Amino acid sequence: MNKRIIKKIAILGSGVMGSRIACHFAGIGLQVLLLDIASAEGDKNKIVNDALSAAIKSNPSPVYNKDVIKKIKTGNFTDNMKDIADCDWVIEVVVERLDIKQSIFAEVEKYRKPGTLITSNTSGIPIHLMAEGRNDDFKKHFCGTHFFNPPRYLRLLEIIPTKYTDPEVIDFLLNYGDLFLGKKTVLCKDTPAFIANRIGVYGIMLIFNLVDKLQLSIDEVDALTGAISGRPKSATFRTADVVGIDILVKVAKGVYENCPTDEAKDTFNIPSWLNKIVENKWLGDKTKQGFFKKTKNASGETEILTLDLKTLEYKPRVRSKFATIETAKPIDDLKIRLKALCAGQDKAGEFYRQFHYGLFSYISHRIPEISDELYRLDDAMMAGFGWEIGAFETWDTLGVSKTIALMKAADYKVAAWVEEMLASGISSFYKVENGKRLYYDVSSKNYKAVPGGEAFIVMKNFENATVWKNSSCRTYHLGDDVLGLEWYTKMGTIGGDVLEGIQKSISLAEEKYKGLVIANEGGNFSAGANLGMIFMLAIEQDFDEIDMAIRLFQNTTMRTRYSAVPVVVAPHSLTLGGGCELSLHADKVIAAAETYTGLVEVGVGVIPGGGGTKEFVLRAADEMHHDEPETITLLNRFITIATAKASTSAYEAFDLGIYRKDRDAVSINQGRRIGEAKKAVIELYDEGYVTPVQRSDIKVLGRSALGALYAGINGMWRGNYATEHDVVVTKKLAYVMCGGDLTEQSLVSEQYLLDLERQAFLSLCGEKKTLERIQAVLKTGKPVRN
Questions:
Q1: Residue 468: other Cβ atoms inside 10 A
Q2: Average pLDDT over residues 667-685
Q3: Phi/psi at 142 (nearest 5 deg)?
Q4: % residues pLDDT > 90 (the chain)
């Protein structure tokens, strides 16, 4: 069988989904043909060009960097449908009407070459109906590929075959979506709403039912169903406004009408208040009002009002207070927190119990209707709806047997297979053995390994192979003589415990292992150094302690660079300040595509003090060319730090000079980065890893460059682009990056630059305005301009 290669893709339909799917494919390097209906007047491509332009300007950005747009060619169905002949995959993303889709497919059939993949991004129309009337080759290569919006950020891709779809096509799409598109690919049956929307919309409709039953307000529900319970910050009603209330209602009605045997069908009945909201065309963000409405108050400030579901009038938001939530808030571990929430004795506790009983009953009855394997339901909800843990895993957390007894007492039924599982002595849906995650397979009545275990390394699955730990870190043996270090501090902040963990893990790896992977599974890799500790020491004016803390940080990043074994860092999401500095010193970085990294310390009134400033000077020196002024290279590096630039993707981090084009790499699928980092450690070791030699040949420009940088800083201040304190901070930065006030260019050592960096950091910690900046970030999460 020939290996299938995708070089060019056609997207038919340029609406919100079509244009963004086009951007995502262009982002991974493919040529994209984006088509839509021809405009009736003027430029025939006006519709498609306007849609693509709107997508590129949208926030959050659908592209990894702006150059991606060059890979997208636009056209119209009238003139350019013939151009799909040289495409390897055609994706239909037109309006959700079967007749229109079938007319598009009739045109596609005329021009596509045999063997070309043809898929639909429908979310509501049965896939098999769209294949009717097409030829055998079309049917064989046709299935559903349901992306979630926005496709760059939501990781779910549902693959829905028909009875005609070639198994090779299914396997290819499952693999391609994972490996090249960075998706959690989930195989679905051709049932209404597939998996994620079937379970997700049931969950939302169940909550709407509980609103009436428990007399809850919108503000109360969103307080209960956000981050506190392992769901996205947008919770329930805010999510509905973003998605579109009409879309939510449409999916619910579709399930009600097309799933006559669904035992919970009545849950999908639309409440009268929801029907009224749709009639009023209060559909959420797209109509500027839904469950919430943004308005201006008497002072001209923006205010968000909440809809009162009893009166359907907008009122000021009310901060909700529940004793159960106050009790659970301090608990960092989600699984322990969920137990506390469900044990609550107030209305909140009752809500959590009834919600979970309904959810557990529903998912048990969906096997095998919508999927033969239970882990696919969990994968779909985590990747498509942003749940931190899946429904079956939550059930395990609360105790399967214990919960069923409570469910029965509350008149909730579970599917027979769950009772049979418990009767056979199996008490959980998942378990971990030798670092591999196993799931209960309903058909064989035994555990099977979740596919992809080797590629998708999850650190916590190696808990039984813990080599060392302290209160913030764990070091695991990941197999094949590779250690893995993770930490689980709030926001991934790096303090003394984490630095100890890095140093200790490197020492252990040097003793008898091939190398070390540094990664974690938190929401962020690291928001930087522990600012709270620095602030407290600075307030106390304990500069000796701050000096020791900075030395420890510098020693740790240098230990990472000059270890006797390879150290590979696998960051994701926020990787700022100290997290970025650690990456700068790794032998190799395997970054998730969604990594937002940079040296942002200037925002809190200091300069990078963990080796980041030194490293940028070193790299600037290595990048200096004879054919351009040396100051230009240094200036570019200076501006990156002085303006606290952070990348909006891992790809952009290469443009900022944080990642190295000849050494570092991007893992498009975040779940694969730790496995790829482990592989990189082994490759570096097997190639004959040699400890690098510390540098003492770093060219610094001294006074000549310092004068130019000072002049630029003063110009920014005079133009009101910089505050007086910005001037203080950036002049310190310039001083370090030029190697000090040297009369001529010189070659210096890394330690020389580290000492300058540390002294500048210390002196800035004594500045009142720096402390104001740090305090603002600690209090509000946002820097203040002072």
A1: 16
A2: 97
A3: -110, 140
A4: 94
